[in-house]
Structures are given as structure tokens and as C-alpha cells.
Amino acid sequence: MTFTIKFCSDLHINKYYPHYPSVKDLFDTNDKFIADVCILVGDITYYEVTKFYKKFLKYLSNYFTLLILIPGNHEYYNNTQTKKSMKELDTLSKDLTQEIKNLEILNNKYIDIGDLRIFGSILWSFLPHTAPKKYFPIYNDNYDMLSRDEFNMLNYSSIVSLQNCIEQSKKDGKELIVATHYSPTFDMYSNKNVDPINYWYCNKLDDLIKEENMKVWIFGHTHTPYKKTINGTILMSNPYVNGYVKGLGINVEY
């Protein structure tokens, strides 16, 4: 059997508040049923604006059997005077799934559809000391902004979760679709010498892309539309910027 996955990233719907993009804007259709699965690959808006976020997700959920949200870095941004830690924002996000029954939030987690496994993660990037400092208003439990070491611990946790999923999926006979907010590769940048700023956007995980059970890997964050097949794995990015493809999707057999 075949099902269709639509996907997009980096909608940043806070820019349109109190409005948000319509299904016509995103998928070029007003059909009551658009596809089996829609994956939102991060940076949709801030978790702290829960009511607005919920309103948008509830609207989208009516057009798909399953709606999957992969959080991005912007989901954890603080834009009010009241600081909220990542842990507190994760608690807020649970309110979204309680009211939207066909919504799954995947961060270092997976779900199965037949013989396919969909793994989702922010996949925070690793920040070497050569990467310049950036201001990310994301807070730890002490309400301090995350340090470089804390970002790198998040990166480590994401990669370990993905590696474990890859190995477990091999044992379970599952093919993998991976959806991450951060890019798994620097391949979209033409310069052989990596610009240090790009460490804030990408990972060097080309070996994982080539894993035998890897079928599709979609990502966001770079704001760079991208499509390439590497060692049989389809890599795609469809950010809501110039070059966005309305209704971009893939048909998958399961």
C-alpha cells in the first residue's frame, strides 16, 4: 500500500499574527482531505504562544489523517518578560496533543506505520569553539541562557537517540523516514571550507544518511530549499521562503 506525506518547515507564523497561512497557501488546494500525513519540520512558532499555536495546528489537523510536529529551536524561544525553561515549554507543548487527537510531537521519538518507522528530532547541531556566538533566547532550569556546552549535550542526546533508532529499526525490519529540524549535512553549501556560522544550522552526519535502512530524510532550519539523493536516501528541505513548493510531498510504500 502507498500513503502520501506532505511536509514543510520554518513557517514562522508569528509573523502573520493574528492570522496564519491557509492550506491554500501551503498546499495549493482547498480539498477537505489533502494527504495521509503532514510533517511540520520545526520553527512553526513559539511554544509560549500556546493558544495561537493550537489554533493553527487544529486547523491543519482537519486535512490530514496524521499531523506530525518536529519542534525547532524557535519553539523554545522566549519572547516575553517571563522566562520559561525548555522543560516548562515542553510541558506547555503537551497541551497541544491533548486537544488535537491526530497530532504527534516527535523529538527523539518515533512512530510506526506498517513496516515504516518515522523518527523525529530537533537534531541540535554541534558547536565547536570556532563557531561564533549567537543569541538564542532559550533557557535552562536555572533560567540562564543555554551555554555552548549545553547545546552540545543536546546534540549528543539527539544523535544517540537517532543511532539507537537506526539499529533497533534494523532488528525490527523497519525502513526509516527521518525528520529533523537541523540539517544532517553541510552539502547544500558549495564552499569546501565550512563557514563557522553554518555550525549553527547543520550536522556532519553523512554516514548516517547512508545507512541501509534509511529511506527518506527531511529537514528544515537552513531556509534553503534542497533535494538530493545520497546513496539511495532521499534528502529534502521545503522551508516557507523563496523557492517554497506548495504541496511538496512523497509517496511511500508500506
From TrEMBL:
Residues 4-225 form the Calcineurin-like phosphoesterase domain. Signal peptide: none annotated. InterPro entries: Calcineurin-like_PHP, Metallo-depent_PP-like. GO terms for molecular function: hydrolase activity. PANTHER family: CALCINEURIN-LIKE PHOSPHOESTERASE DOMAIN-CONTAINING PROTEIN, SER/THR PROTEIN PHOSPHATASE SUPERFAMILY (AFU_ORTHOLOGUE AFUA_1G14840). This is Calcineurin-like phosphoesterase domain-containing protein. It comes from viral metagenome.
